[in-house]
Amino acid sequence: MTTPSAYSLAGRTALITGGGTGIGLAVAKCLAASGAKVILGGRREEPLQTAASEIGELASIQVMDVNDTAAAPVLAATLREKHGPIGILVNNAGINMKKPFTETTEADTLSVFQTNVMGGLALARALHPQLKEAGQGSVVFISSMAAVMGIPLVSAYSVAKSAITGAVRAMAVEWGADGIRVNAVAPGWIDTAMSRRAFEGDPARKQKILTRTALGCLGDTEDVGWSVAYLCSPAAKFVTGTIIPVDGGASMGF
Ligand code: NDP
Predict the structure, then answer these.
(1) How far apart (Å, rounded) are the C-alpha atoms in residues 224 and 115?
(2) Which of 147, 140, 143, 142 has the alpha carbon at shortest distance from 124?
(3) Which residue out of 157, 189, 226, 230 is catalytically annotated?
(4) What value does the mean pLDDT take over residues 67-80?
(5) Of 15, 109, 162, 236, which one is least surrounded by beta carbons within 10 A?
(6) Using a 6 Å CB cutoff, which residues line ligand 1?
(7) 146 CA: nearest ligand 1 atom
(8) Ligand 1, from 157, 192, 218, 227: best to mutate by most atoms within 8 Å of Cβ?
(9) Whole-number Å distance between alpha carbons of 237 and 130
(10) By CB neighbour count within 10 A (0-12 exposed, 13-18 middle, 19+ buried), where does 102 fall?
C-alpha cells in the first residue's frame, strides 16, 4: 500500500454529527480533503449550509437532532436512499454544562448524557447494516479530557464522556467480525466556541490548562480532524477499541 492510498478516503461516505461548527466542521474538512463525501448533521440549517459551501461539492447537509433517538432508523433509511451506504460515522455532536456537582440536577446529567452518548449510540445502531455493507466501516466518537482526568465543574459532561469509553470497547469487540472499527478521539483543550465559553470569566482555569499542556497552547480544530481522518483510513485498519488523546500532552502533564 502506498502512503497516499493508506490515508485516502476516496469512495467513502461519512456522516458527521455537529458537522456545521467547531471540531465537527474541521473533521468534515479533513475527511473531505482525504476524498470522502461528507454529510454534515445538526439542528440548525444555516451553519450547516455555510459549512457545506466552505467545503464544496463533496459536502451535503442533513438537518437532524441526535436527541431524537426514535427517529434514528428513519434517518438512516433516508441517508441510505440519498447517499448510498454510510461507511463512516463520526459522533461529534455534544453539549457541555459548567456547574458545581452539588447544583447539577438529575435532569442536567440526563440531558448532557442524551446528546453526548445516547444520540450517538442510536445512530450507530441504526447505521450498523450500512457500515457493514460499505466495507471498512468506521465509527469515531469525540470524547474529552473529562473522560481521562477529574475536571471540576463539569460532572455531567464527565459522566457522559466516560460512558463513551465503555461504548467504544463494547462495540469494537461486537463489531470487529463485521469489519467495523470503533474508536474515539479525546481532544484536549481546543480553541472553539465551546471552550471559549468554559474559560469566560475564569482566566485561572485557562492558565492552569496551559501550564499543564506540554506544548503550551490550545489545539486547533484540525488537530482533531486529522486524527479522525487517520482513524477512518486504511492506515488504521488494525486499530479498534481505543481512545486516542489529541491534547498537546495535557493528559500526561504535571
Ligand atoms: P460546538 O458547540 O461548536 O459544536 C457542537 C455541535 O453539535 C454543533 O454543531 C451543534 O449544532 C451540534 N449539536 C448539539 N446538539 C445537537 C443535537 N441534539 N443534535 C444534532 N447536533 C447537535 O462545540 P465543539 O466543536 O467544541 O465540540 C464538538 C465536540 O467536541 C463535542 O462532542 C465536545 O464535547 C467535544 N470536545 C470539545 C473540546 C473543546 O475544547 N472545544 C474538547 C474536548 C471535546 P446545532 O446546535 O445546530 O445542533
Answers:
(1) 20
(2) 140
(3) 157
(4) 98
(5) 162
(6) 17-18, 20-24, 42-44, 47, 64-67, 92-96, 115, 142, 144, 187, 189-190, 192-195
(7) 43
(8) 192
(9) 18
(10) exposed
Ligand 1 atom closest to Cα of residue 19: 9
Question: What cell numbers appear for 196 in the block?
Answer: 471559549
Q: For residue 109, give the amino acid letter.
A: T
Residues 6+ apart with CB under 8 A from 97: 104, 108, 111, 112, 154, 156, 157
- pLDDT, tens digit, 9 for 90 and up, residues 142-188: 999 999 999 999 999 999 999 999 999 999 999 999 999 999 999 99
HEC secondary structure over 185-211: EEECCECCHHHHHHHCCCHHHHHHHHH
Whether 157 is catalytic? yes
For residue 200, the model assigns a pLDDT of: 83
Over residues 243-249, the mean pLDDT reads 98
Q: Give me the helix-helix angle, 106-113 and 155-175, nearest 10°.
A: 40
Contact between 228 and 30 under an 8 Å Cβ cutoff? The reply is: yes
pTM above 0.70, yes or no: yes
For residue 225, give the C-alpha cell. Answer: 480532524
Task: Please give the number of the atom of ligand 1 that sits closest to the Cα of 187.
Answer: 43
Q: Contact 86/132 with Cβ under 8 angstroms?
A: no
Q: Which helix (H) or strand (E) holds 38?
A: strand 37-42
- Residue to mutate (ligand 1; options 43, 116, 157; most atoms within 8 A of CB): 43
Q: How confident is the model at residue 3 (pLDDT cuts 50, 70, 90)?
A: low
Q: How many CB atoms lie within 10 A of CB 193?
A: 9
- 96 CA distance to ligand 1 middle (Å): 8
